[in-house]
Amino acid sequence: MANSDHLKQNKTILQCLTDHSIASPSISSVTFFPTDPSFTSTLQSYIRNLRFTSTTTPKPLFIVVPSHVSHIQASIICCKTHGLEMRIRSGGHDYDGLSYVSKAPFMILDLFNLRSVIVDNGTAWVESGATLGELFYAISLKSKTHGFPAGVCPTVGVGGHFSGGGYGNMMRKFGLSVDNVIDAKLVDVNGNVLDRESMGEDLFWAIKGGGGASFGIIISWKIKLVSVPEIVTVFKIEKTLEQGVTDIVHKWQYIADKIDPNLFIRVVLLPVNKKHLQSIKAKFIGLFLGNGQELSSLMNEAFPELGLSFDQCIEMSWIESILFWSNYPKGTSLDVLLDRQPQQEKYLKKKSDYVQEPISKENLEGIWNKMIELKRPALTLNPYGGKMSEILEFETPFPHRAGNIYKIQYSVTWKDDGVEASGRSLDQIRKLYDYMTPYVSKSPRSSYLNYRDVDIGINENGNASYSEGVIWGRKYFKGNFERLVQVKSKVDPGNFFRYEQSIPCLGSWKSITAE
């Protein structure tokens, strides 16, 4: 009986999709129900966190992989008709799985078929299902002196990356990805296809860092490419506690956001727990938009403590630096940028913080001891300053601009399946996050939207009130949260586009004051 009911439901939904779609190929050829042999592989092919591959993870009633805008329009209509939630997935890198998991009955709109990249005269139109690797590769085919400021993980999907802000190792020079977006095409809740002009500046503002899935389905983005030198320089230096890592990291805090904006120095901090050695290892990874001689001179003057020699400066093209930052050996073919699957999948949890005052040496040593005690979580420090401090925090929904020295990413990964391994690892990263409370931003304790973290608060089944959403919303968006709510209430008054951290919708903007 149950199987019969499911088959009837599937048939009804498919008929609805067919009735409202005009595209060729037909929508039936890109729709997958659990009875289809390709359902599981389609679902799992873009799950980037193994925590959400378990048998207990809620599964969608069906998946649509649109190849035409009418497939998207039909999916919206039929989700409304059948009372289903829609999850929108471009690359599947949502750290807490919100782009493909829901407790309510739902479907997945998976955009991986929409991945064209058209580069033309210093700009590019890129579809949301493209990966950053595909975007970078397409740029490199057209120009040796153009690039784009975006993340260094090639398998990340453009749609989620851009709509959450999108940062990378050129942000100190050029800002975020969204600081270089000049147009977009979006399907709204009524099925209208809108560009910047027709959607209006408020909605265009909101999707540039406010999380696009709260407002509609962004099909594509027009971006302004940036000029890069034919030769850039990279380096990677490792230091241990015994080699003075405390002094070096302490000094890094004072120069990383103030040094030449052509230079970006990331620090990755890892606990070392060997039988006869408990320590901290720091990796300093750099990108300089210039040659090795210029970098060597700059570092000797501003940051001699790191001990970077000219021999450690590696010159290459900008596109080759993408491979370096992705840990590919020098000489690897650029074709790896077209691989849509990561080199390995993991169970993982991430969190984020912003540091606005340098942490003292004594307190850094306390952090090292806590990391050694916990054994697993790592910290990645990403410097701000430069262009990031020049853009006002209200210009885009992403508010973390001037006043931030660096951002912290907390990371824990594990290999074992099961509740016990997951619980232990989640406890470790939460304990480190709690320990860091005195050293990070306050009122609010800020977080980065693209480092998705449901620990900071969620909407119950997406139906948030303002007072519920503001708890996590202010952490991601600070004072921009109110404007995002205003835009959401105007463009999606029925709150169709909802998930656990979607922007809440109010019947009228005036009710905010009452609430």
TrEMBL record:
Residues in FAD-binding PCMH-type domain copies: 56-228
Keyword Nucleotide-binding: yes
Record InterPro entries: BBE, FAD-bd_PCMH, FAD-bd_PCMH-like_sf, FAD-bd_PCMH_sub1, FAD-bd_PCMH_sub2, Oxid_FAD_bind_N
Cellular location(s): Secreted, Cell wall
SUPFAM superfamilies registered for this protein in UniProt: FAD-binding/transporter-associated domain-like (SSF56176)
PROSITE patterns on file: FAD_PCMH (PS51387)
Essential cofactor(s): FAD
Taxonomic superkingdom: Eukaryota
Keyword set, alphabetical order: Cell wall, Disulfide bond, FAD, Flavoprotein, Glycoprotein, Nucleotide-binding, Oxidoreductase, Secreted, Signal
GO MF term list: FAD binding; oxidoreductase activity
PANTHER family xrefs: OS08G0158400 PROTEIN
Entry's family note: Belongs to the oxygen-dependent FAD-linked oxidoreductase family.
Protein name: FAD-binding PCMH-type domain-containing protein
